[in-house]
Specification:
Order of helices and strands: EEHEEEEHE
Number of strands: 7
Largest sheet: 4 strands, antiparallel
Radius of gyration: 17 Å
Shape: elongated
CATH class of one domain: Alpha Beta
CATH superfamily of one domain: Ribosomal protein L16/L10
Helix content: 10-25%
Distance between the termini: 29 Å
Length: 134
């Protein structure tokens, strides 16, 4: 699964997702892409699950690019721990996604195959998506 090799700070503030994506909002590598239409956080497990669904469907034909990277740590405290005593430990890494962000790109397959692969991938993701063609 994806996670950063090294971070400047181990734990970060949560922050808020406002506005829409400007950077990473157009197709850069492939011919087809899947774009987020709502905002949210996508975990490294969800990215890997969507990637596997696409790779299985296209059956070694074509190429896939992952355009998001989970670099924001998510912390959690163990169950039944009292309030206080600091912030919890890092449980996973998530990628913040704003509307308009391109999540995955694909090339080298027929349009129908790409559409179906992206449809399977979208079921694995917590944000609503749309398929775009270059």
């Amino acid at each position: 699964m994806l996670q950063p090799k090294k971070t400047k700070y181990r734990k970060t503030h949560r922050g808020r997702l406002k506005g829409s994506a400007i950077r990473g909002s157009s197709i850069a590598f492939g011919d087809y892409a899947i774009k987020a239409t709502t905002r949210g956080f996508i975990t490294s497990r969800q990215i890997e699950s969507a990637r596997r669904a696409m790779v299985r469907y296209i059956k070694r034909g074509g190429r896939i690019w992952i355009r998001i990277f989970p670099d924001k740590p998510f912390t959690a405290k163990p169950l039944e721990v009292p309030m206080g005593w600091g912030k919890g430990s890092v449980e996973m890494y998530r990628a913040p996604v704003k509307p308009g962000r391109v999540l995955f790109e694909m090339t080298g397959v027929a349009p129908e195959v790409a559409r179906e692969a992206f449809l399977l991938a979208s079921y694995k993701l917590p944000v609503k998506t749309k398929i775009i063609v270059d």
